[in-house]
Amino acid sequence: MRRVRYILTVCIAIMAAVMMPASGRALDNGLAKTPPMGWNSWNKFGCKGLNEKVVRETADTMVSSGMKDAGYQFVILDDCWQTGRDASGNIVADAERFPSGIKALADYVHSKGLKFGIYTDAGAMTCAKRLGSIGHEYQDAKQYANWGVDYLKEDWCNTLPGQNSESSYTLMRNALADSGRAIVFSICEWGSTKPWLWAGSIGNLWRATGDIQDCWDCKKDWGGNGVTQIIDQMNGLETYAGPGHWNDPDMLEVGNGGMTKEESRAHFSMWALFSAPLLAGNDISNMTADTKEILLNKEVIAIDQDPLGRQGRRVKKTGDQEIWSKQLKDGSRAVVLLNRGPAATKIAVSWTDIGYPDSLPASVRNLWTANDLGKQNGSYSADVPSHGAVMLTIKP
């Protein structure tokens, strides 16, 4: 009987969210006008490695390494920070892993000039079988606000049969709006119900793809994707993204060891071209020089953070050779020459590929070598390594 009552309560709450007038449903929280940047615990630490010490060290390193100055803001706890609920139904943190409590941890992150994020699930349990938020959306949102949370990621595991994603995420959006605190809302249903068609008025970002894996070209039976699979899933979604609402191709795998330096550079280049959230997923307290070079490239980050907020698109594909272009606010273009093949090759971009006339002289700059390549007319070509990318700006 208790379970029947619980399910009825959830259903009524979801119906109320759906039936809310359109004027009350529009997302206008003023947040994430450029794609969020920060760090998320999952890709490196998963469930077993997450604890208060790791999070504090990450916040410290985000400042000392220059990541904060480069634009990284959010320190986000993913799954496994919670253990259950107290007698009043309030979500409870794992006291063993987080002995100081979540508010004290958020306060520490804030003391570094950073922002704090946390994780929940729209179902009865999270993906790691911790308690989700279903039936407690308003209560949890109030708790997060009281703790000083600035960013909420809501997953889509262990949902009820027939549970509707748009309705469920609308309910949490309304709860966050009622919490009294400005909280970026990240929808994570893995692109399974085409969120780009409905999430623009609900979340600040939504997962447009399956989960990323630390590999260049792979596909897991359960839905995990390598970088190239995610690149293909993102193509064609560019019209749905913009300031305050972004397609999310999942967190970065740079620095986790599964890809070469060239593959990692290409991965970072493409995420910047996509205007994707740049959420580092590595152990930033122990970064190699190559990892720092990639994550701290301010010119590539500037492409991601361009205030026009356009998502780049593929403009040409010839076998494993691809050309991607993104319009920038000043009228110039960011261009990625992407080589998915097994051998180095020369790739040429024509001005007509990116919306310029052939006769137009334009300045070309390589963002990874930080070299100005002079005025070019009509086209530019570069040698691109296997599984690598050359990232350019082309400016008339």
From TrEMBL:
Residues 1-26 form the signal peptide. It is an enzyme of class 3 (hydrolase). GO terms for molecular function: alpha-galactosidase activity. It comes from the Bacteria. Its EC number is 3.2.1.22. GO terms for biological process: carbohydrate catabolic process. Residues 318-394 form the Alpha galactosidase C-terminal domain. It catalyses: Hydrolysis of terminal, non-reducing alpha-D-galactose residues in alpha-D-galactosides, including galactose oligosaccharides, galactomannans and galactolipids. Keywords: Disulfide bond, Glycosidase, Hydrolase, Signal. InterPro entries: Aldolase_TIM, GH, Glyco_hydro_27, Glyco_hydro_27/36_CS, Glyco_hydro_b, Melibiase_C. PROSITE patterns: ALPHA_GALACTOSIDASE (PS00512). Belongs to the glycosyl hydrolase 27 family. This is Alpha-galactosidase.
